[in-house]
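Shipment paperwork, digital attachment
Item: protein structure file
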Amino acid sequence: MDQTYMWLEDLDIFFIRLMAALVLSGIIGFERELKNHSAGFRTHILVGMGSCLMMLLSIYGFESFIEEYDNVRFDPARIPSYVISGIGFLGAGTIIVNGMTIRGLTTAASIWTVAGLGLVVGAGMYGVAIVATALVLLSLIFLNNIERKYVSHYFKNSYVVVVEDDAKVSDILTIFDDENLVVKKVEIQKGNNHRKKIFIHADRSQKYDEAGLIEKLSSIPRVVQVSSKR
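Attachment content:
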């Protein structure tokens, strides 16, 4: 009876913390949803609330045992530590590796951060949770724009050419020679449906007619698709 009363007495605390976890993790998830990432609004909310729930269990769930038995020792950090390590399976599911392109790392990191956010809210550290949410949003929104503006030049003059298996790589490289472009690196990835991907990195300092180059590459027999990584 005493245990039931304790839970009813703390019900408002549980509700407030769960709602705070829902709102803060939902804000981050909404930003991911707007950008059409695999883990969006609902996923982030579930991770945040689930982590908050585990933290509440860790803090309040075993109080009666500790009070009733003198020999019971409990580490409140044990459950949260498993949450942080166990959330990796969700993050791994959002990462997509396609040749030299890796997508989903930021979303995986946001899921891991939201898990930590839920734990912090569950511990009642609202100020830290709000500041962390604001910083995460600033990182996801503004740093993404800065990265596009100042870092995108590292992918300049990089192309992905999808060809049939029996296509000759030399025919493709000949086009780059005709345009007087120095090829720095070539990678070939085996694909499905009897196709393969050729990743070509030319010297970034060179200037040329990109539209003309893509048109010439597309006109080669057995070339299925040509795309620029710029």
